[in-house]
Amino acid sequence: MKILGKLYWTEKAKHRIKNILPQTLFGRALLIIVTPLILMQAISTFVFFDRHWDTMTRRLAHTLAGDIAFIVDSLTPLPQQLHLNQIFLKADDILHIRLTYSPEEILVKKKHFPQWDRVRKSLRDALKERVRRPFSIDTIKKDRRIKIKVQLPQGLLNVNVHEKRLYSSTPYIFLMWMIGSSLVLFAIAIIFMRNQIRPIRRLAIAARSFGMGRGSSEIKPSGAKEVRQATQAFRQMRERISRQLAQRTEMLAGVSHDLRTPLTRMKLQIEMLERTPETRELQDDIQEMERMIDGYLTFARGEGSESLSKINLTSLIEEIISTERRDGSSINFVNKSKTKKSVTLRPQAIKRAITNLIINSKKYAETVRVELEYNLEHAVITIDDNGPGITPEHRDDVFKAFFRLDPSRNTDTGGTGLGLTIAKDIVQSHGGDLLLSEASLGGLRATITLPL
Fold first, then answer.
1. Which stretches of the chain drop beneath a pLDDT of 50?
2. Which string of DSSP letters, residue by residue, matches 96-127?
3. Which terminal residue of the chain, N or C, has fewer Cβ atoms less than 10 Å from its own Cβ?
4. Contact 347, 381 (CB under 8 A)
5. CA distance 46 to 247
6. Does domain 24-218 have CATH number 3.20.20.450?
7. Total H helices, total E strands in the chain
8. Cis status of the peptide bond prior to 77, with omega within 30 of 0
9. pLDDT of residue 409
10. What is the pLDDT of residue 162?
């Protein structure tokens, strides 16, 4: 149990880390570049503030404490007023320290300053070591000056000094240079990574467009050596596939002509014969052969020659349903989308796929329902019926060419076994998918998903 619990929490932690990490290549590459930069800056800052800045602060604090100790020593014992004024003037002129003396005044201790104030802590330690008299430090700075009070035997010495005696500008310069250099390096990294990612993004767009059957514009190899190799490989693959499709189409056109020629001669010869039950049976056989040839050629040829265009799926589905209702079939259409969106498709190909699915439902069901809805990335067409449906173990098999649930191959109980195969081939050629499941009406549900 402990091992299972540990594995569970390990997998959960991995899942959380994956959710936190950027999902795009640009974000991950930028993270790889920026993370060491941030760590280096953090370590540099820690070393600087822990070593240089702390040492500099102690030195400045000891220097100021030494000046105050010298002044206190000069005022002990307290000189005459004239000599006292001269000391105050020289301290202001040479040491930049303003002094005042309050006779008979006693030092009042104030609350301690925060422990995190390292500058005042250094000054307090330095005054304890150098002055060796009771003192207080005013933590409230006015006009960027610090007030220090030192208790003398006969009064109170007030020291007013500018904060620059305790603070060095080096940390601020260091921080500005560190932040500025980080921003410059970060901007350079962003520009560089965008230039490296752009060819990959173009390649992905071209591959997706070609996979959806929309073709793709000419893509020029650019970027890093590996990206150029991948782009060149994609171009060669696209050319080979396009060439094979063109050769197949030309071959099928010739096969279609060769097969129809003898059938046409047979039809003419039968027309010249006397009308008998035997000749009618021959005519029926020839018509069945023509339908089979048409089905086979349609499956093999596909709809690749048809050009893409933007169509309104709502209007297309309404047109198909209107045609299929002519024989009195019960077909309902539910449009769940509030807005009409145009989708780039091959209209006749999609029309054939949807028609095949509706015809298949009409053969085995009394009621057919067609639904259309859109999400952020796809148009979803659902065709439900109340027929017997298809068992789960056969739902993948029905998409295989020439597969029929009825093994007798009787065309009265089914077609050539290519209707669903052609429908799925058309949908997948558009970058979508066709799935079968159980319908809410109790029969079969066919779901077409098409990318927008």
1. 408-411
2. -EEEEEEET------PPPPTT-HHHHHHHHHH
3. N
4. no
5. 69
6. no
7. 11, 11
8. yes
9. 41
10. 84
Segments of 281-339 assigned E as strands:
309-312, 330-335
The alpha carbon dihedral of 283, 287, 288, 289 has a sign of positive
Residue 369: beta bridge partners?
Answer: 332, 384
- Give, as one character, the DSSP assignment of residue 111: P
Length of the chain, in residues: 452
Distance of alpha carbon 331 from the chain centroid: 41
369: helix, coil or strand?
Answer: strand
- Helix, strand, or coil (residue 332): strand
Q: Are 145 and 160 spatial neighbours (Cβ–Cβ below 8 Å)?
A: yes
CA distance 15 to 11: 6
Task: Say how far apart CA 160 and CA 97 lie, in whole Å.
Answer: 6
Burial class (CB in 10 A: 0-12, 13-18, 19+), 180: exposed
Tell me the chain's radius of gyration from C-alpha atoms: 44
Model pTM score: 0.53
Q: Do domains 24-218 and 309-451 have the same CATH topology?
A: no
Q: What is the pLDDT of residue 302?
A: 57
Could you give the CA distance from residue 394 to residue 398 in angstroms, rounded to a whole number? 6
The full set of domain ranges for the chain reads 24-218, 309-451
CA atoms of 179 and 198, how far apart (whole Å) = 28
Q: Are 84 and 75 in contact (CB under 8 A)?
A: yes
Residue 218 near residue 206 (C-beta atoms within 8 A)? no
Q: Which residue type occupies 275?
A: R
**What tokens were used for 31?**
């993270």
- The phi-psi region of residue 96 (left if phi > 0; otherwise alpha if psi is between -120 and 50; otherwise beta) is left
- Give pLDDT, residue 408: 43
74: number of CA atoms within 13 Å, CB side? 16
Q: How far apart are the first and last CA of the chain?
A: 48
CA dist 321 to 15, 138, 420, 421, 441, Å? 47, 89, 18, 21, 18
Spatial distance between the Cα atoms of 43 and 250, rounded to a whole number of angstroms: 69
For residues 203 and 448, give the distance between their C-alpha atoms in angstroms, rounded to a whole number.
27
Amino acid found at 20: I
DSSP characters over 162-183: EGGGT--SHHHHHHHHHHHHHH
Separation CA 64–CA 119 (nearest Å): 12
Which ranges constitute the DSSP H helices of 302-346? 313-324
What local confidence, expressed as pLDDT, does residue 17 receive?
66
CATH architecture of 309-451: 2-Layer Sandwich (3.30)
DSSP 50: I
Q: Under a CB-based contact definition with an 8 Å cutoff, are residues 168 and 56 in contact? A: yes
